[in-house]
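Quick note —
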Amino acid sequence: MAAPTSWNRDTLPEGAQKQQAVREMFDAIAPRYDMVNRIMTFRLDVRWRRHAVASLGLPAGSRVLDLASGTGDLCVDLRRAGLVPVSIDLSLGMLRADRSGAPRVQADILRLPMTDSIVDGVTCGFALRNLVDLDMFFVELARVVRPGGRIALLDVGIPRNRLVRWGHGVYFGKVVPKIGGLFSDAAAYRYLPRSVAYLPAPAVMVDMLRVAGFADARHEHLSGGITQLLSATAS
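Predicted structure written out below.
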């Protein structure tokens, strides 16, 4: 019997093991990542990304880093909004699948290879729960975004309504892994619903951002709370 993959284990990985598991998992699912996303979200992911880009409120020509950029969907939306995106991801497989046309950099987004106050904005789509150190990430955002620059961070959420939360839990925990198994890697799409456990409560993340240097940080529920958006301005 083959050994389990780094992301197909009984317990969620931590520290360096988590980073390795995330990189290897996204390398594996990159070829069909966009297709599975469209199917499992009923294309709501398109709406969420566009809302995140609009929330930046940056003028045309602004340079924006898309962190954990995956296949470049947010980069496409950033360019359509007249912004200048740069795609940064730890997964080489994802960067190879990027068809956005934006400049691509393979890097650990907790240690960005750039100087202070160099960009006008940052986006990040559905990757906060995959990071080893969320505090470090927020501090790094405050370092590279110029004063007055904007950030927009999407991730999955937990609906507030009890009935919606139950239905979403069944869908995300039971149906999504079956969709993933049909079109991609079943283990990866079992891991992704479980990884929500990594995320702090919304109020905690807002406080973390404010401590890092984003005084006006705010949280927004999207689509009944199944997705959440953190947005803020660099102080």
